[in-house]
Specification:
12 helices, 4 strands, Tetrahydropterin Synthase, Chain A, alpha+beta, about 325 residues, elongated, single chain, four-stranded antiparallel beta sheet
Length: about 325
């Protein structure tokens, strides 16, 4: 009997310790939720604790939502927490949207949060529009370069005022898409202008034409306005391109002329070689003359007197050539 009493006392002590632990662990949260009008039962608290859910976040979020007039069941908040969502951030976004009269159901807010976007920041951005620099100076580019039809380059800086579109936050494009589209619209508008002076006179036409294109389609933002912050006149790209083209043409024509000169030189060398070849043929032909004379003597076709007359004519011709050469040289020297 004494042993059984000891076991009974031990079991009772363990039960008492368990009750004390439960009281210390959960009584404060249960009692606070009860007094706030958003009761969460002890059994549910124990269940969430066993499922390793942050009890304080769930209870505090439910109290805040109920006080703001957004009654949500504990199961909904617990499910979002188990899915890896930020329950406290979503709850704050719901309260902010409710105060700003922005329709934002919990399912959409939870989807935005699970998609990796800051739902509270999105609600704030929907209430207070944001100004985006175009282009983004943090990317290293300070202005958008565009060339009008007259060849003058303009450097433009724009400021885009946007606000978040809650309905398109899931799957909508980010700020980089807005910047890229606005930059494309600015380049197109300036490029279609006949003169850079027309752009400088009416810079607001850039804003109007860009806004007419509906650049915020498919993005998570709604473009409220596009303001041209600065326009600077840069260099004459048209003249530079023409100069580069002229230089390229000069080099091409120079290369063609060099090609023709090289061909002419090659032709000249070929003709010199042909002359030398013909002279060699003449020398060979002249070498055959004595043979032909000797053959004529043997054949009886040429007499000795004929030969002497031929030699006299040949000597006379040689003399005339020499005299003509001497007179030409003296006349040229006198001149």
């Amino acid at each position: 009997m004494q042993f059984e009493l000891i076991i009974l006392y031990v079991v009772a002590g363990i039960l008492a310790l368990g009750i004390l632990f439960v009281f210390i662990k959960f009584f404060g949260l249960w009692f606070r939720s009860l007094l706030s009008g958003a009761p969460v039962g002890p059994g549910r608290l124990i269940g969430m604790w066993l499922r390793k859910v942050n009890l304080s976040v769930i209870v505090n979020s439910r109290i805040m939502l109920v006080k703001a007039g957004i009654p949500l069941e504990t199961d909904v908040l617990e499910t979002h927490a188990l899915a890896g969502g930020n329950v406290w951030r979503v709850s704050q976004a719901l309260v902010a949207a409710n105060k700003a009269n922005i329709p934002l159901p919990f399912q959409r807010a939870a989807a935005i949060d699970l998609a990796g976007r800051d739902v509270l920041e999105a609600v704030k951005l929907s209430v207070n529009p944001k100004v985006i620099d175009c282009p983004d100076p943090t990317k290293g580019k300070q202005a958008i370069d565009s060339v009008a039809k007259d060849g003058i380059q303009l450097k433009v800086k724009a400021k885009v005022t946007v606000r978040a579109n809650i309905e398109r936050l899931v799957g909508g494009a980010t700020e980089e898409t807005i910047i890229a589209r606005v930059g494309e619209g600015i380049v197109t508008t300036i490029g279609s202008a006949e003169s850079y002076k027309a752009v400088l006179e009416n810079p607001d036409q850039i804003s109007r034409r860009v806004l007419e294109k509906g650049l915020d389609a498919g993005t998570a933002f709604e473009i409220l306005s596009i303001d041209i912050a600065d326009i600077d006149v840069s260099e004459n790209i048209g003249a530079k391109l023409q100069a580069d083209q002229a230089e390229a043409d000069r080099r091409r024509f120079q290369a063609e002329a060099e090609k023709r000169r090289a061909a002419a030189q090659a032709r000249e060398q070929e003709m010199l070689a042909a002359v030398q070849e013909n002279r060699a043929k003449v020398v060979l032909a002249e070498a055959e003359v004595p043979k032909a004379i000797a053959e004529a003597f043997r054949e009886g076709h040429l007499g000795i007197m004929d030969y002497y007359r031929f030699r006299n004519i040949q000597a006379d011709t040689e003399m005339r050539k020499n005299i003509g050469g001497e007179s030409t040289d003296s006349g040229s020297s006198e001149t």
